[in-house]
Design goal:
Order of helices and strands: EEEEEEHEH
CATH architecture: Beta Barrel
Shape: globular
Low-confidence stretches: 108-118
Oligomer: single chain
Radius of gyration: 13 Å
Structural class: alpha+beta
Number of strands: 7
Number of helices: 2
Strand order of the largest sheet: 1-2-3-6-5-4
């Protein structure tokens, strides 16, 4: 189980992630998002803690474009990885798209995140 470390509530999300960091290009699925960051699944293990990522996420409510820092990476048994990213630079229209998406279905606890919505 992962402890709830964010100050902002997380919201479920089913969106594709595209990003770049240095010489790497990343793709994966966004599993949850908040005003301060997001969680990715299905990414390659090349993403490293502390790395800066330029990202684009297409939500049903709009496009989120931001620069984020990789806060943690966990490698799964199948060789893919899961990562948590914290936004370090994000524009107002991206925050508005997140706010609108957040109204759809909130995740209010770690239990709900891990057992109900997975």
């Amino acid at each position: 189980m992962y402890p709830e470390l964010r100050n902002d509530r997380r919201y479920t999300c089913q969106a594709r992630f595209f990003g770049s960091g240095g010489t790497f290009l990343f793709r994966g699925a966004v599993t949850d998002i908040s005003r301060t960051g997001l969680c990715l699944a299905g990414i390659g293990a090349a993403m490293a803690k502390g790395q800066s990522i330029h990202l684009k996420v297409d939500l049903p409510t709009g496009t989120v474009e931001a620069v984020a820092e990789v806060r943690w990476v966990r490698t799964q048994d199948d060789g893919t990885a899961e990562a948590g990213l914290r936004f370090v630079r994000i524009n107002q229209s991206s925050l508005e798209a997140i706010d609108e998406a957040m109204a759809e279905r909130p995740i209010t606890s770690t239990f709900m995140r891990q057992y109900v919505f997975r």
